[in-house]
Amino acid sequence: MSTTRGARQPTIKEVARSAGVSPMTVSRTLAGGRNVRPDLQERVMAAVRELGYYRNENARSLRPGQPSGLIGVAITNLANPYYGNFALGVEEVAAEHGRRMILGNTGEDDARERQLVSDFIGRQVEGLILVPTSGDAAHLRPERLGDVPLVLASRRVLGLEVDTVLLDDVGGAYRGTIALLDAGHTRIGFLGNRSSVFTGERRYKGYEQAMLERGAPVEPAIVARDQQDVVSASRAARAMLDRPDAPTAIFSANNRNTIGALREIGRRIREGLPGPRPAVVSFDDFELSELMPVPVTVIDHDARLLGREAATLLFARLGDGAGAAARTVELPVSVEHP
Amino acid sequence: MSTTRGARQPTIKEVARSAGVSPMTVSRTLAGGRNVRPDLQERVMAAVRELGYYRNENARSLRPGQPSGLIGVAITNLANPYYGNFALGVEEVAAEHGRRMILGNTGEDDARERQLVSDFIGRQVEGLILVPTSGDAAHLRPERLGDVPLVLASRRVLGLEVDTVLLDDVGGAYRGTIALLDAGHTRIGFLGNRSSVFTGERRYKGYEQAMLERGAPVEPAIVARDQQDVVSASRAARAMLDRPDAPTAIFSANNRNTIGALREIGRRIREGLPGPRPAVVSFDDFELSELMPVPVTVIDHDARLLGREAATLLFARLGDGAGAAARTVELPVSVEHP
DNA sequence: GCACTCTGGGGAAGCGCTCCCAACATTGAA
DNA sequence: TTCAATGTTGGGAGCGCTTCCCCAGAGTGC
Question: pTM of the full predicted structure?
Answer without folding.
Answer: 0.87
